[in-house]
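Hi, here's the filled form for the chain we discussed.

Project: internal
Contact: R.S.
Residues: 287
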Amino acid sequence: MSESPYIHNVSMQNFQNLVLEKSINKPVLVDFWADWCQPCQTIMPMLAKLAEEYDGKFELAKVNADEEQELAAHFGIKSLPTMKLFFKGQLVDERMGAVSESDIRAMLDKHIVSESDQFMQAAMMAYQQGQIEQALEMLNHALANDPDNAELKVAIAQIVHDQGDDESAMALLDSLDEEGGKLDTATKLRAAIKLAAQLAGLPDLNEIEQRLATNSTDLEALLQKSRHLTARGDYDNAMECLLTIMRSDRGFEDDAGRTGLLEVFDMLGGEHPSVQKYRRKLFTLLH
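And the returned structure, exactly as it came back:
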């Protein structure tokens, strides 16, 4: 057995301590094996190598199924090797047989918090506490080490947008690859930035309401009103304005009513109850 601090021999007596308790903070991969099992002997060096390479991001627990028959029976081990992954005290995944290294990596990586993720969590906590410069410094440091991380870019873009620098925020969003651009956070932020640009130079809401009191079919005023209401968080009434525009004239500013609805949907996200409600209304109107 390796002298690695990340690899342990596990028995019924120490399973609680070395597997369940350790798995609260990091994944623990339990390898059920036996001396007579040739695939076990083949896979052992690969698992040990991964434990060293991941440098403590997960731990490897070795269970000799012949010597620990009670433990093997408890987990219903029918064939060897069998690998069971525990995280936060729960069994979260498993593999049987001489699986490939790439398969084991994929199983582990789903549950391992990367260094970039740790930096982002700490940075966002700092930002929520008003430590803006410290948060940006942490995020930029993480991005320098992980330049393709789309979530880091969106987090930075969100902070600079909140500070009023929409040009820099949009530049970061535009640098995302196709997959990163589809992130829900990126879509919402892009829509929020677009709304901020649309609000610039608009008449105030009282003036717009006066125009509509004179002419309720003033579609430009309705569109401007929808943007003000969206900015205020009055999403349902904003989307009613946009539906009214659609019902009146689909050709107005290249179907501005429908475009505006889709932008609000993007900003709020598909799970928002108002989005679900107005998607149904939009569908009914279109069909």
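Let me know if anything looks off before we file it.
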